[in-house]
Write a structure and sequence with these properties.
Length: 271
Protein backbone atom coordinates (compact mmCIF):
# COMPACT_ATOMS: atom_id res chain seq x y z
CA UNK A 1 0.00 0.00 0.00
CA UNK A 2 1.29 3.44 -0.90
CA UNK A 3 0.11 7.05 -0.68
CA UNK A 4 0.50 9.11 -3.85
CA UNK A 5 0.07 12.86 -3.41
CA UNK A 6 -0.62 14.50 -6.75
CA UNK A 7 -0.46 18.18 -7.70
CA UNK A 8 -3.18 20.27 -9.33
CA UNK A 9 -4.74 18.00 -11.97
CA UNK A 10 -7.04 20.70 -13.41
CA UNK A 11 -8.65 18.38 -15.90
CA UNK A 12 -5.36 16.99 -17.25
CA UNK A 13 -6.72 13.46 -17.43
CA UNK A 14 -4.25 11.94 -19.91
CA UNK A 15 -1.23 13.12 -17.93
CA UNK A 16 -2.76 11.77 -14.72
CA UNK A 17 -3.36 8.36 -16.31
CA UNK A 18 0.25 8.20 -17.56
CA UNK A 19 1.54 9.06 -14.11
CA UNK A 20 -0.66 6.45 -12.43
CA UNK A 21 0.70 3.92 -14.94
CA UNK A 22 4.25 5.01 -14.21
CA UNK A 23 3.87 4.43 -10.45
CA UNK A 24 1.81 1.25 -11.01
CA UNK A 25 -1.06 2.69 -8.99
CA UNK A 26 -3.29 -0.09 -7.66
CA UNK A 27 -6.71 1.21 -6.51
CA UNK A 28 -7.31 -1.97 -4.48
CA UNK A 29 -4.31 -1.16 -2.26
CA UNK A 30 -3.00 2.37 -2.88
CA UNK A 31 -4.41 5.81 -2.09
CA UNK A 32 -4.36 8.81 -4.42
CA UNK A 33 -4.27 12.11 -2.53
CA UNK A 34 -4.93 15.05 -4.90
CA UNK A 35 -3.97 18.43 -3.38
CA UNK A 36 -7.03 20.15 -4.85
CA UNK A 37 -8.06 21.84 -8.10
CA UNK A 38 -8.95 18.52 -9.66
CA UNK A 39 -10.94 20.18 -12.43
CA UNK A 40 -11.16 23.41 -14.50
CA UNK A 41 -8.88 25.07 -17.06
CA UNK A 42 -7.65 21.76 -18.52
CA UNK A 43 -9.04 19.68 -21.41
CA UNK A 44 -10.92 16.86 -19.64
CA UNK A 45 -12.44 17.80 -16.29
CA UNK A 46 -15.39 15.47 -16.85
CA UNK A 47 -13.05 12.46 -17.25
CA UNK A 48 -11.15 13.38 -14.08
CA UNK A 49 -14.44 13.69 -12.17
CA UNK A 50 -15.61 10.28 -13.43
CA UNK A 51 -12.31 8.69 -12.42
CA UNK A 52 -12.58 10.16 -8.91
CA UNK A 53 -16.04 8.65 -8.44
CA UNK A 54 -14.79 5.29 -9.74
CA UNK A 55 -11.79 5.29 -7.40
CA UNK A 56 -14.08 5.54 -4.37
CA UNK A 57 -12.15 4.89 -1.17
CA UNK A 58 -8.85 4.92 -3.07
CA UNK A 59 -8.93 8.69 -3.43
CA UNK A 60 -8.58 11.24 -0.62
CA UNK A 61 -8.55 14.80 -1.96
CA UNK A 62 -8.56 18.20 -0.30
CA UNK A 63 -10.62 20.98 -1.85
CA UNK A 64 -9.08 23.72 -3.97
CA UNK A 65 -10.50 27.05 -5.09
CA UNK A 66 -11.56 25.62 -8.45
CA UNK A 67 -13.33 22.69 -6.77
CA UNK A 68 -15.29 25.13 -4.61
CA UNK A 69 -16.02 27.28 -7.65
CA UNK A 70 -17.38 24.25 -9.49
CA UNK A 71 -19.73 23.66 -6.55
CA UNK A 72 -20.90 27.29 -6.81
CA UNK A 73 -21.56 26.88 -10.54
CA UNK A 74 -23.43 23.63 -9.85
CA UNK A 75 -25.45 25.42 -7.14
CA UNK A 76 -26.43 28.06 -9.71
CA UNK A 77 -24.53 30.95 -8.11
CA UNK A 78 -22.46 31.57 -11.25
CA UNK A 79 -22.46 30.72 -14.91
CA UNK A 80 -19.44 28.71 -16.05
CA UNK A 81 -16.99 30.92 -17.90
CA UNK A 82 -15.41 29.73 -21.11
CA UNK A 83 -11.94 29.73 -19.50
CA UNK A 84 -13.07 27.36 -16.76
CA UNK A 85 -13.71 24.64 -19.37
CA UNK A 86 -16.29 23.08 -17.06
CA UNK A 87 -19.22 22.98 -19.49
CA UNK A 88 -19.01 19.25 -20.27
CA UNK A 89 -18.78 18.35 -16.59
CA UNK A 90 -21.60 20.70 -15.55
CA UNK A 91 -23.86 19.25 -18.26
CA UNK A 92 -22.93 15.65 -17.57
CA UNK A 93 -25.47 13.36 -15.84
CA UNK A 94 -22.92 12.49 -13.14
CA UNK A 95 -22.41 16.10 -12.01
CA UNK A 96 -24.84 15.71 -9.10
CA UNK A 97 -22.96 12.65 -7.80
CA UNK A 98 -19.65 14.43 -8.25
CA UNK A 99 -20.86 17.57 -6.45
CA UNK A 100 -22.24 15.46 -3.61
CA UNK A 101 -18.92 13.65 -3.27
CA UNK A 102 -16.95 16.89 -3.45
CA UNK A 103 -19.07 18.52 -0.73
CA UNK A 104 -17.97 15.91 1.82
CA UNK A 105 -14.25 16.36 1.16
CA UNK A 106 -12.12 18.34 3.63
CA UNK A 107 -9.94 21.46 3.32
CA UNK A 108 -7.15 19.90 5.37
CA UNK A 109 -6.01 16.31 5.86
CA UNK A 110 -3.38 15.07 8.29
CA UNK A 111 -1.43 11.83 7.85
CA UNK A 112 0.18 11.01 11.23
CA UNK A 113 2.17 8.09 9.80
CA UNK A 114 4.18 10.55 7.68
CA UNK A 115 3.58 13.68 9.82
CA UNK A 116 2.20 15.24 6.63
CA UNK A 117 -0.44 17.96 6.56
CA UNK A 118 -2.16 18.55 3.22
CA UNK A 119 -4.16 21.52 2.02
CA UNK A 120 -4.55 23.14 -1.38
CA UNK A 121 -2.93 26.54 -0.71
CA UNK A 122 -1.31 25.95 2.69
CA UNK A 123 -1.92 26.77 6.35
CA UNK A 124 -1.44 30.09 8.14
CA UNK A 125 1.92 30.21 9.96
CA UNK A 126 0.61 32.48 12.77
CA UNK A 127 -2.56 30.53 13.63
CA UNK A 128 -2.26 27.31 15.67
CA UNK A 129 -2.67 24.27 13.45
CA UNK A 130 -5.23 22.75 15.82
CA UNK A 131 -7.37 25.88 15.42
CA UNK A 132 -7.12 25.69 11.63
CA UNK A 133 -7.99 21.99 11.60
CA UNK A 134 -11.01 22.70 13.78
CA UNK A 135 -12.13 25.57 11.54
CA UNK A 136 -11.60 23.42 8.46
CA UNK A 137 -13.71 20.65 9.95
CA UNK A 138 -16.52 23.11 10.73
CA UNK A 139 -16.32 24.35 7.12
CA UNK A 140 -16.53 20.77 5.84
CA UNK A 141 -19.68 20.19 7.89
CA UNK A 142 -21.25 23.37 6.50
CA UNK A 143 -20.53 22.37 2.89
CA UNK A 144 -21.82 18.84 3.50
CA UNK A 145 -25.04 20.15 5.04
CA UNK A 146 -28.31 20.94 3.26
CA UNK A 147 -27.49 24.65 3.76
CA UNK A 148 -24.41 24.38 1.57
CA UNK A 149 -25.64 26.93 -1.00
CA UNK A 150 -25.88 29.63 1.67
CA UNK A 151 -22.33 28.87 2.77
CA UNK A 152 -21.02 28.88 -0.79
CA UNK A 153 -22.51 32.37 -1.21
CA UNK A 154 -20.92 33.53 2.03
CA UNK A 155 -17.55 32.17 0.92
CA UNK A 156 -16.78 34.96 -1.59
CA UNK A 157 -14.74 37.96 -0.45
CA UNK A 158 -11.24 38.74 0.84
CA UNK A 159 -12.15 39.75 4.41
CA UNK A 160 -11.19 39.14 7.14
CA UNK A 161 -7.52 39.08 6.20
CA UNK A 162 -6.33 38.37 9.73
CA UNK A 163 -7.32 35.74 12.23
CA UNK A 164 -8.83 36.89 15.51
CA UNK A 165 -10.50 34.63 18.03
CA UNK A 166 -13.69 36.73 18.04
CA UNK A 167 -14.64 36.46 14.39
CA UNK A 168 -18.26 35.66 13.56
CA UNK A 169 -19.07 32.18 12.27
CA UNK A 170 -19.28 33.55 8.74
CA UNK A 171 -15.96 35.44 9.02
CA UNK A 172 -14.19 32.40 10.43
CA UNK A 173 -15.56 30.27 7.58
CA UNK A 174 -14.31 32.74 4.97
CA UNK A 175 -10.92 33.04 6.68
CA UNK A 176 -10.25 29.29 6.69
CA UNK A 177 -11.51 28.80 3.12
CA UNK A 178 -9.34 31.67 1.87
CA UNK A 179 -6.31 30.47 3.85
CA UNK A 180 -6.48 26.86 2.73
CA UNK A 181 -7.55 27.40 -0.89
CA UNK A 182 -6.38 30.86 -2.08
CA UNK A 183 -3.44 32.05 0.05
CA UNK A 184 -0.03 32.82 -1.45
CA UNK A 185 1.46 35.88 0.25
CA UNK A 186 1.11 37.11 3.84
CA UNK A 187 2.27 40.51 5.13
CA UNK A 188 4.41 41.14 8.22
CA UNK A 189 1.29 41.44 10.40
CA UNK A 190 -0.10 38.11 9.25
CA UNK A 191 -2.73 39.55 6.89
CA UNK A 192 -3.56 37.54 3.76
CA UNK A 193 -2.78 39.31 0.48
CA UNK A 194 -4.75 38.46 -2.65
CA UNK A 195 -3.60 41.27 -4.91
CA UNK A 196 0.03 40.33 -5.56
CA UNK A 197 0.47 38.23 -8.66
CA UNK A 198 4.26 38.40 -9.00
CA UNK A 199 6.61 35.50 -8.26
CA UNK A 200 8.16 35.62 -4.74
CA UNK A 201 11.41 37.22 -5.96
CA UNK A 202 9.54 40.28 -7.33
CA UNK A 203 6.95 40.66 -4.58
CA UNK A 204 6.77 43.81 -2.39
CA UNK A 205 9.15 43.71 0.59
CA UNK A 206 6.44 43.52 3.26
CA UNK A 207 5.03 40.32 1.74
CA UNK A 208 6.34 36.78 2.12
CA UNK A 209 5.20 33.45 0.76
CA UNK A 210 3.21 31.81 3.60
CA UNK A 211 5.73 28.96 3.89
CA UNK A 212 8.65 31.33 4.54
CA UNK A 213 7.13 32.87 7.69
CA UNK A 214 8.13 31.07 10.86
CA UNK A 215 5.27 29.94 13.09
CA UNK A 216 5.03 31.61 16.50
CA UNK A 217 5.19 28.29 18.30
CA UNK A 218 7.83 26.00 19.73
CA UNK A 219 6.15 22.75 18.66
CA UNK A 220 7.71 21.34 15.50
CA UNK A 221 5.54 21.86 12.42
CA UNK A 222 4.57 18.91 10.25
CA UNK A 223 5.60 18.51 6.64
CA UNK A 224 3.28 20.54 4.42
CA UNK A 225 2.14 19.16 1.07
CA UNK A 226 0.30 21.72 -1.07
CA UNK A 227 -0.53 22.90 -4.59
CA UNK A 228 -2.14 26.08 -5.97
CA UNK A 229 1.03 28.03 -6.82
CA UNK A 230 2.12 26.96 -10.31
CA UNK A 231 4.63 29.83 -10.59
CA UNK A 232 6.77 28.17 -7.89
CA UNK A 233 7.09 25.03 -10.03
CA UNK A 234 7.30 23.16 -6.74
CA UNK A 235 10.29 25.08 -5.37
CA UNK A 236 10.13 26.28 -1.75
CA UNK A 237 13.82 25.93 -0.71
CA UNK A 238 12.62 24.05 2.38
CA UNK A 239 12.16 20.28 2.34
CA UNK A 240 9.39 20.59 4.94
CA UNK A 241 7.21 22.36 2.37
CA UNK A 242 6.47 20.21 -0.64
CA UNK A 243 4.84 22.16 -3.46
CA UNK A 244 3.23 19.83 -5.99
CA UNK A 245 1.66 22.31 -8.44
CA UNK A 246 4.12 22.13 -11.28
CA UNK A 247 1.76 23.76 -13.79
CA UNK A 248 0.66 20.81 -15.96
CA UNK A 249 -2.31 22.79 -17.26
CA UNK A 250 0.08 25.60 -18.30
CA UNK A 251 2.27 23.28 -20.40
CA UNK A 252 4.65 22.19 -17.64
CA UNK A 253 4.38 19.05 -15.56
CA UNK A 254 2.14 16.96 -13.33
CA UNK A 255 3.92 15.75 -10.18
CA UNK A 256 3.32 12.83 -7.82
CA UNK A 257 5.01 12.47 -4.42
CA UNK A 258 5.08 8.98 -2.94
CA UNK A 259 5.09 9.42 0.83
CA UNK A 260 6.45 5.95 1.71
CA UNK A 261 9.67 6.37 -0.30
CA UNK A 262 9.78 10.19 -0.58
CA UNK A 263 10.11 9.81 -4.37
CA UNK A 264 8.84 12.27 -6.97
CA UNK A 265 7.40 11.22 -10.34
CA UNK A 266 6.65 13.66 -13.13
CA UNK A 267 4.75 13.65 -16.40
CA UNK A 268 5.29 16.36 -18.97
CA UNK A 269 2.13 18.06 -20.19
CA UNK A 270 0.89 16.43 -23.42
CA UNK A 271 0.27 18.50 -26.56
MN1 LIG B 1 -5.80 26.78 -6.86
Amino acid sequence: MAHYFVGDIQGCYDELMRLLDKVKFDPTQDVLCPVGDLVARGPASEKVAKLMLELGHAVEPVLGNHDLHLLSIYAGLFKDKKNDKLKKLVQSPMVSDYAKWLRTQPLIRYYPEFNIIVSHAGTHPFVPLETQMELADQARQKLASKDYKIWLERMYGNEPRKWRSHLTEEEAFRFIVNTTTRMRFIDDDGALDFETKQPPSQAPLNLSPWFELKPKTTTPTPIHVFGHWAALLGKTDDSNFIGLDTGCVWGNKLTIYKAETKEFFVQQSLP
